[in-house]
Structures are given as structure tokens and as C-alpha cells.
């Protein structure tokens, strides 16, 4: 026997206490490994482990850990014609034909639509609203009213392009190009006289820069780095720099270039007001939406007359990506990588000229819509 070993009663009790303490420490460590928080930049967001890029929801699968039954119900959207997936995976997964029939799912003409504007925040707004259980949102831009080929196919073709919805849901689509085509408001009025219309608009200077970056990517994809590129008489003029694109050889704003023209929102809305009542149109501030999406989605809920669903907890700011993402019903659910492309530095003289150009139009827009858009111009 080792001379240093303590065989006294006190020594044996001391050993037992040490063993119990070690066991408690191991148990606490193990429980900590099963749950907790996941760091994202400077914040900590409640989450859980999952395979792949996102959830593939299935009613036959058990609910994710650490979620109560009420959250699980919300997660699967039991009243909808689809199950939710992540934005990366397409947002929606259509139910089986038997389920569609059981739930009374049909393709219906839109009750509401986002009709503008390009690079104003339309895609992000559509993605967020798609998770509201009272909204069935078509995920593609249908472009029915800007495509003569599609219109020739008729209204039933348009209806068939919509997403399945239940009788209790608002059917929606989003096509930002509708805002700028002069003949579109009359065509929408003829087919959808009672439709509710949503337009989300950014500071027109910021919108123009964002559109320039978008068009550069589009041109690069179409032209494949060839020396010349045909923009199909689109109305866009895209030079090597933003400054050369929006300022002409005389040093004046090139207002005929769609980079600039699409920021004169008041003209577009005035066309719609010839055919629709003011209460049928909701104007949202895209700059405020970028900074905090919660107030905007609450305004949409009120405008559409649907249930109070979104809370502040649905959204979180991802410091690494630099924009807001969704945390419910699927955690850590962000826009695709194409969102948030870096903007070029623009010289002060070009910015001043653009702001001077847009200022009277922005004031007219504020007066028309009774909304104070606090834009730089």
C-alpha cells in the first residue's frame, strides 16, 4: 500500500466529494454543447445545428430542438399551400396535389402587388412578406403588363402564373417595371380594378448608383467581356464610370438615361392616380426600410387588412453582411449574396448635380403622397 494514500474515513469522504464535483462539471459541459447561442459578428443569435444550407421542412419530421409547439406551427404554415424554406432555397415548397385540394388552394389573380421601383428594395420586401401566413406571394417577377407576348396569351395565363393560395390569403406579385411604363396603369385597372398597390422608393441618387452597379453586372454577364455590348435599345447608357453615365458632355445631368429617369417617382405615381384611388396606393420609404424593416412590414399589414403577425424579433441586423435578415420563422435567414454589392465612390460634383436635379421632384412627391421622405436630395 502507498504510504501517501489516505485510508481514514475523512479521506474516503473527501474522495467521494471530489468525484461528485467532477461529475457535475462534466454534466454541465455536456448540456452546454447541446444548446446555447451561436455568434454572428458582434451579436449572439439563438439557433440550432442543421445540415446543409437551410431547412427542408417536412411535417413528418420532428420539430427542431428548443422550439415549442406554437413556434413549430408557425414554422410550417399549416394554413398555407406550401411549406417554408430559406430564402436561399426559394422560400416556398409547394404542397402535394392532394393537400392543395384539401386546403382549397387555387391560383388566383393578385389582390395586391408591389409595382415599383427597380433597386428600391422590392425583392427584400417581397422576401420578408412571403413569410406572412396571410400572404401568398409569387416568387417570380411575372411582367404580364409589360410583356405584349404574355398579354396576348390572356388573363387566364396570368392567373396560372400566380402562386397557389387559400381563400383566406392575399394573393400577391411583384414587378418593379410596372411603375415606369406609361400604359401599364390603365391595363392593370382593366384587369384588376380593386388591386392594392405598393411602391417602395429609395433616395433617387442612391437608386441610380445601385442600378448602375446592377447594370454593369448584367452587361458583363450578357457581353462576356466583349469589346461592345448591345443594350437592346433599353434606354440605359452605361459608361465605364457612374459619373460619365449620368453627366453628359456639356456637364449637365443626362435626364433621358434611365439610370436618372427612373428616380423621378412622382411622375410614375401621378399616372397611377389617374386610374386608382389614393387609398389603393401605399408608398414606402426604401431608405428607412433598409435601416429598419419592421415599421414598413407593419404598414403593409395595416394596408392589406391582414393579421398583426410580424414582431421586432422577426428581424436582426447581420453585421458581417451589412443588412437585415430574418430570424423567424427560420433563424439566420438572409438574402442571397448578390444583395449588398459595393457601390463605387462618386465625386461630390456629380452628387451635387443629381441632388439639385431631383430636389423639386422629391418635394412634389412629398406633397402628393403626404409622406416626408428624408432623402439627401
From TrEMBL:
Residues covered by the Sulfotransferase domain: 110-359
Transmembrane segments: 17-36
Binding-site residues for 3'-phosphoadenylyl sulfate, renumbered to this chain: 202, 210, 339-343
Key words of the record: Disulfide bond, Glycoprotein, Membrane, Transferase, Transmembrane, Transmembrane helix
Keyword set includes Disulfide bond: yes
Cross-referenced InterPro entries: NST/OST, P-loop_NTPase, Sulfotransferase_dom
Active site per database record: 119
Region (Disordered): 41-72
Paired cysteines (S-S): 325-334
Keyword Ligase applies: no
Protein name according to UniProt: Sulfotransferase domain-containing protein
Organism per entry: Patiria miniata (Bat star)
Amino acid at each position: 500500500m502507498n504510504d501517501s494514500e489516505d485510508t481514514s474515513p475523512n479521506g474516503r469522504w473527501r474522495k467521494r466529494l471530489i468525484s461528485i464535483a467532477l461529475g457535475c462539471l462534466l454534466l454541465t459541459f455536456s448540456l452546454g454543447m447541446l444548446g446555447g447561442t451561436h455568434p454572428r459578428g458582434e451579436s449572439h443569435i439563438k439557433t440550432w445545428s442543421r445540415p446543409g444550407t437551410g431547412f427542408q421542412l417536412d411535417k413528418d419530421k420532428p420539430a427542431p430542438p428548443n422550439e415549442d409547439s406554437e413556434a413549430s406551427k408557425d414554422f410550417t404554415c399549416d394554413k398555407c399551400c406550401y411549406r417554408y424554406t430559406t430564402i436561399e432555397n426559394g422560400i416556398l415548397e409547394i404542397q402535394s396535389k392532394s393537400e392543395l385540394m384539401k386546403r382549397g388552394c387555387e391560383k388566383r389573380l393578385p389582390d395586391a402587388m408591389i409595382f415599383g421601383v427597380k433597386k428600391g428594395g422590392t425583392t427584400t420586401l417581397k422576401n420578408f412578406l412571403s413569410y406572412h401566413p396571410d400572404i401568398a406571394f409569387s416568387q417570380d417577377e411575372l411582367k404580364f403588363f409589360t410583356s405584349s407576348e404574355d398579354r396576348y396569351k390572356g388573363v387566364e395565363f396570368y392567373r396560372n402564373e400566380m402562386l397557389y393560395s387559400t381563400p383566406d390569403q392575399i394573393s400577391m406579385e411583384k414587378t418593379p417595371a410596372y411603375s415606369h411604363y406609361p400604359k401599364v396603369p390603365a391595363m392593370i385597372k382593366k384587369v384588376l380594378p380593386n388591386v392594392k398597390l405598393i411602391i417602395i422608393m429609395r433616395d433617387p441618387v442612391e437608386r441610380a448608383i445601385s442600378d448602375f452597379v446592377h447594370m454593369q453586372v448584367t452587361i458583363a454577364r450578357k457581353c462576356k467581356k466583349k469589346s461592345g455590348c448591345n443594350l437592346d435599345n433599353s434606354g440605359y447608357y452605361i459608361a465605364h464610370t457612374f459619373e460619365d453615365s449620368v453627366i453628359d458632355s456639356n456637364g449637365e445631368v443626362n435626364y433621358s438615361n434611365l439610370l436618372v429617369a427612373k428616380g423621378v417617382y412622382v411622375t410614375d405615381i401621378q399616372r397611377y392616380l389617374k386610374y386608382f384611388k389614393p387609398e389603393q396606393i401605399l408608398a414606402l420609404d426604401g431608405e428607412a426600410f433598409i435601416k429598419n424593416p419592421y415599421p414598413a412590414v407593419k404598414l403593409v399589414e395595416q394596408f392589406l387588412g391582414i393579421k398583426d403577425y410580424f414582431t421586432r424579433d422577426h428581424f436582426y441586423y447581420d453585421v458581417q453582411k451589412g443588412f437585415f435578415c430574418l430570424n423567424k420563422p427560420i433563424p439566420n435567414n438572409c438574402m442571397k449574396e448578390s444583395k449588398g454589392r459595393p457601390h463605387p465612390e462618386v465625386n461630390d460634383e456629380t452628387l451635387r448635380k443629381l441632388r439639385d436635379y431631383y430636389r423639386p421632384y422629391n418635394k412634389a412627391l412629398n406633397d402628393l403622397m403626404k409622406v416626408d421622405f428624408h432623402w439627401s436630395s
